[in-house]
Amino acid sequence: xxxxxxxxxxxxxxxxxxxxxxxxxxxxxxxxxxxxxxxxxxxxxxxxxxxxxxxxxxxxxxxxxxxxxxxxxxxxxxxxxxxxxxxxxxxxxxxxxxxxxxxxxxxxxxxxxxxxxxxxxxxxxxxxxxxxxxxxxxxxxxxxxxxxxxxxxxxxxxxxxxxxxxxxxxxxxxxxxxxxxxxxxxxxxxxxxxxxxxxxxxxxxxxxxxxxxxxxxxxxxxxxxxxxxxxxxxxxxxxxxxxxxxxxxxxxxxxxxxxxxxxxxxxxxxxxxxxxxxxxxxxxxxxxxxxxxxxxxxxxxxxxxxxxxxx
Length: 311
Known about the structure:
Blueprint: H1 2-30, H2 34-56, H3 61-89, H4 93-104, H5 112-148, H6 154-163, H7 165-182, H8 190-201, H9 203-215, H10 224-249, H11 253-263, H12 270-277, H13 282-307
């Protein structure tokens, strides 16, 4: 089993961290602006990846509902745990918001999509994209709510979701997928399909480069105990919540595996961005993002090994 674990770390996790590490080094040396990459990702590459993934997916309606159930359920349970721990520890509203943010927002895109692609192949990528779409919509709303402590900013969160192209790419993907499955003769114009494929292929390396740039700007300052607790909840409790919910709803195969892995991902950099924008404790969320990303090398390797049956 040790050899199997090392094989997963070397073939699934290590390639991702080599790119992240390269981007981290470039960022420290040349100080590029992450917004340049993020603009291309948000408005071109990621929408193309989302459209292609949904257009090509063979996931059924019941599986789609099951994936949504797991995403919503994990976020809800994590939020409850975060609020309960914060109240027990007597955190102020600012720290409470940061703590909850750090355990409900997961890196389902920059890290989650390539990880599931390497671990479970093309089907894994398609399901991971669906999880990412649900996480983006729900995560933005809940994230802004907890970052701002519910001071009338849910409308802003909804507007941000509506203004972004990723949701519309998902809708177009679902429509095209329905047409493809309804009519065997339906196909996209070759020129459009090739352009989408080119843009989609650029999304994963772009995501990993952006993650490296973002992590290079993280500073490990703050209270050690709550940082480690939040990291532990995100990496060690969330997987069991995802596993339980995926089992309850009846997911199977690659869809089950990806739903559990995406629930087990480390904290998203989005947590720090929202904490900064809405006055929560951004240093804390940044620290949890950094530590959970590093420690996820081990936890995700074990989870993937177990999901593969330990062989």
